[in-house]
Design brief:
The radius of gyration is 28 Å and the shape is globular. It has 28 helices and 19 strands. Helix content is 47%, strand content 12%. The protein has 4 domains: 2-259, 2-enoyl-CoA Hydratase, Chain A, domain 1, CATH 3.90.226.10; 298-471, NAD(P)-binding Rossmann-like Domain (Rossmann fold), CATH 3.40.50.720; 496-602, Orthogonal Bundle (N-(1-d-carboxylethyl)-l-norvaline Dehydrogenase, domain 2), CATH 1.10.1040; 612-718, N-(1-d-carboxylethyl)-l-norvaline Dehydrogenase, domain 2 (Orthogonal Bundle), CATH 1.10.1040.10. The strands form 4 sheets. It has an 8-stranded mixed sheet with strand order 12-11-10-13-14-15-16-17, sandwiched between helices. Strands 1-2-3-4-6-9 form a 6-stranded mixed sheet, with helices on both faces. It binds ligand LEDWP2DD.
Length: 719
């Protein structure tokens, strides 16, 4: 829908109306075609302004339409008609001009932006390229290197940067539409030839071949298997080397391959999944839209180790006052220095003043008496955390929300140690907490909907992908990680190497394979947990029985490495070797290979050839299978919750949509068949036993992922 008005007597004002972001749906495109025609044929109209309602120009093509038969006028001829108009057309950009929205603006002869506006071509993050002429117009307007940067990263630029790059002609702090109308009046009657970007030659780029070769190499490396960034480079190359019409043809061809690709589907699924998780619901029936969050003005963090420091920074950067508590003076001083440095670095990057005054440091827990919310981040020890929770319950004003950053302990147990368990939730951050996007908000059976709503809202304020999940061992992310890691250990026993397993996972798209990741996070972390579970035994026993513990297959490989003092990067040795402790470059370690050989001999294991497919099937399907258990248990409300957790916190390649989306793409029947196959070969591995939900979904015809919620409800009601 587009509304037409005549303003200032001779300016045709076209307003896009399609809340919330004025996406270019079929109706909006039809509206633009009709209103542009009306303005151009009205002899009283000397110039035209296009704007969007409610302070947003246009969020781009309507992504929801991509999954259906697209009807209505196509974008490209519409944009060409605007560019070739014989009256000046000015885009008045408020809020956002993204994707097709910016392409529409590039078709206009002038662009005026509000100082708070953001512009960009983010199609690459949806598995696409700017295929309404953006890949051909932007390089002509701002040059090849700058256009490549914007198009291959999809980043949004501020109005100030857009002005500097030459994307917009003017930036205003005042009413943008008024400024655009005034501007439109001032340019009425001027020649429009120089303003038609499609007629511009692309600015010359020296050493074109070498330049694009280097760019392509870099993009391939960072794309980790994603195809859209590569197509974006190819499209911009076409702009740099071909006449406009041929470049447009190349843009269309490249888009045709991307448009129907699984990667585009996965990335568009992620876009909507990230928004869907905000509409959380609990098994009790409590929901995001019926639960009002409490206001949080002042927060506290207890315990200033690595996690506590990151959480303090994340909170302070949202503008909250934070009381940071650490009982030991030396640790408090060190933490203060580290937090200030992090705040300064962050502020420099964002071009704002550091929120140093927002943090008050204290050794005394009494200092948190008047805060609205506390996040406890002390050492992972239930007795210590219980003591802290009891102190907090005594000190804090009534109604203060008590959150724990535990990654492994029982949130319900902690809640039960306080007089007000309804005020307790888990806020599981990921290290480094001020950088990592993911936040698991963990509710127990007694957590109040208001407590969950407050933690979710705070997470959103901190810019986190916040996902509400039920309380269970490992919550969602770590619970699914356990079978994944165990399968990797078993593969080593059977003949694989850390290099082979990591290579398979990295080629799949993970930034790091399981062993490199384990070296980074520290092998001692899992060792401590396994010791706590009574699984670790002295490493002298041999044979199969030594590898069955608590009735199931167990690999002591990680424990044996820890006994050797090999904790990963921090000790300079782990699954790989490093030049020195703390160094990051993993090198293959001959010691490890002979250790594996000796281990297999000791246990009577015969190494066999393992290929990448087996690595992927065993590690990933075991992880996915656990995801189905989680859905069946009601710990995650839907597959989107699991997928957002994995994409934003565990390095799952976004272009593969998340583990549950991936299972849906592979086919549930295939996942089930492979799990059954491996389960037959390894009957002593319970996590390869297909989940009953997976079986039931397959039996009910493998519904598509957006119908799983319905199917799960139906299957549960039949039980
Ligand atoms: C057979 C082969 C054929 C091949 C040829 C095919 C031809 C096809 C040619 C098509 C050419 C198209 C070229 C153009 C492509 C595009 O434009 S792709 C879209 C690019 N735009 C974006 O990626 C922007 C996405 N949106 C955002 O980044 C943000 O929403 C925002 C605009 C910055 C606003 O942010 P915020 O205020 O935080 O709101 P949100 O919560 O994010 O969004 C609010 C709701 O709006 C929904 N939404 C947002 N953008 C869109 C969109 N573009 N389309 C549809 N819906 C959108 C969003 O989902 C939210 O709704 P809910 O999910 O219900 O919460």
């Amino acid at each position: 829908m587009a509304e037409y008005n005549r303003v200032s007597e001779c300016v045709g004002l076209i307003t896009l109306r399609n809340p919330p972001v004025n996406a270019l749906s079929a109706a909006v495109r039809q509206g633009i075609v009709d209103t542009v025609q009306r303005a151009l044929s009205d002899p009283n109209v000397k110039s035209v302004v296009i704007c969007g309602q409610n302070g947003i120009f246009c969020g781009g093509a309507d992504i929801k339409e991509f999954g259906s038969n697209m009807t209505g006028p196509p974008l490209i001829p519409m944009i060409h008609a605007i560019e070739s108009a014989n009256k000046p057309v000015v885009a008045a950009i408020e809020g956002s001009a993204l994707g097709g929205g910016l392409e529409l603006a590039l078709g206009c002869h002038y662009r005026i932006a509000h100082s708070k506006a953001r512009l960009g071509l983010p199609e690459v993050s949806l598995g696409l390229l700017p295929a309404a002429g953006g890949s051909q117009l932007l390089p002509r307007l701002i040059g090849v290197p700058a256009a490549l940067n914007l198009i291959t990263t999809g980043r949004h630029v501020t109005a100030a940067e857009a002005l500097q790059l030459g994307i917009v002609d003017q930036v205003t702090d005042h009413n943008t539409v008024d400024a655009a109308v005034k501007f439109a009046l001032s340019v009425a009657g001027r020649s429009l030839d120089p303003r038609r970007i499609s007629t511009h030659p692309c600015p010359q780029q020296p050493d074109l071949d070498a330049f694009f070769e280097e760019v392509m190499q870099k993009v391939r490396q960072s794309a980790r298997g994603a195809i859209a960034p590569i197509a974006c480079v190819q499209a911009v190359r076409a702009a740099a080397t071909l006449p406009y019409a041929q470049g447009m043809e190349r843009e269309r061809e490249l888009m045709a391959t991307l448009f129907t690709s699984g990667q585009a589907r996965a990335l568009q699924y992620c876009f909507f999944a990230e928004r869907a998780v905000g509409r959380w619901r609990m098994p009790s029936g409590a929901r995001w839209d019926t639960s009002k969050p409490r206001p949080v003005h002042k927060a506290a963090v207890i315990g200033l180790g690595t996690m506590g420091r990151g959480i303090t920074v994340a909170l302070a950067q949202t503008g909250l006052s934070v009381i940071a508590v650490e009982t030991q003076e030396k640790q408090l001083m060190e933490a203060k220095q580290a937090i200030s440095a992090m705040l300064e670095r962050g502020a420099k990057r964002r071009g704002v003043a550091p929120a140093l005054d927002g943090v008050i440091y204290s050794q005394n827990i009494q200092a948190v008496a008047d805060v609205d919310l506390v996040i406890e981040a002390v050492f992972e020890d239930i007795a210590l955390k219980t003591k802290v929770f009891q102190q907090l319950s005594a000190v804090c004003k009534p109604g203060t929300l008590l959150c724990t950053n535990t990654s492994a302990l029982d949130v319900d147990q902690l809640a039960s140690e306080t007089p007000n368990p309804e005020l307790v939730v888990g806020m599981h951050f990921f290290a480094p907490a001020h950088v990592m996007k993911l936040l698991e908000v963990v509710y127990g059976p007694r957590s109040s909907p208001q407590a969950v709503a407050t933690a979710m809202q705070l997470g959103k304020k901190m810019g986190k992908a916040s996902v509400a999940v039920g309380n269970c061992r490992g919550f969602v992310g770590n619970r699914m990680l356990k079978p994944y890691i165990e399968e990797a250990f078993f593969l080593l026993e059977e003949g694989a190497t850390p290099e082979l397993v990591d290579q398979a996972l990295e080629e799949f798209g993970f930034p790091m394979g399981v062993f490199r990741m384990s070296d980074l996070s520290g092998l001692d972390v899992g060792w401590r947990v396994r010791k706590g579970d009574g699984l670790v035994e002295p490493g002298t026993a041999s044979g199969r029985s030594a590898r069955i513990r608590q009735g199931r297959r167990y690999s002591p490989l990680g424990d044996l490495l820890c006994e050797e003092g090999r904790f990963g990067q921090k000790t300079g040795r782990g699954w790989y070797q490093y030049d020195k402790p703390g160094s990051r470059v993993a090198r293959s370690d001959p010691w490890l290979h002979s250790f594996l050989g000796a281990y297999r001999a000791q246990h009577g294991l015969v190494a066999r050839r393992i290929d990448h497919q087996e690595v992927l099937e065993r590690c990933l399907y075991a992880l996915i299978n656990e995801g189905f258990h989680i859905l069946d248990d009601g710990i995650a409300a839907g597959p989107e919750d699991i997928d957002v957790i994995y994409v934003s916190g565990y390095g799952w390649p976004r272009h593969r949509g998340g583990p549950m989306f991936y299972a849906n793409m592979v086919g549930l029947a295939k996942v089930l068949e492979r799990l059954e196959h491996y389960q037959q070969l390894h009957p002593e591995v319970p996590h390869l036993q297909p989940s009953s939900l997976l079986r039931r979904l397959v039996a009910s015809g493998s519904p598509p992922i957006h119908k799983w919620g319905e199917a799960i409800k139906k299957l549960h009601s039949q039980l």
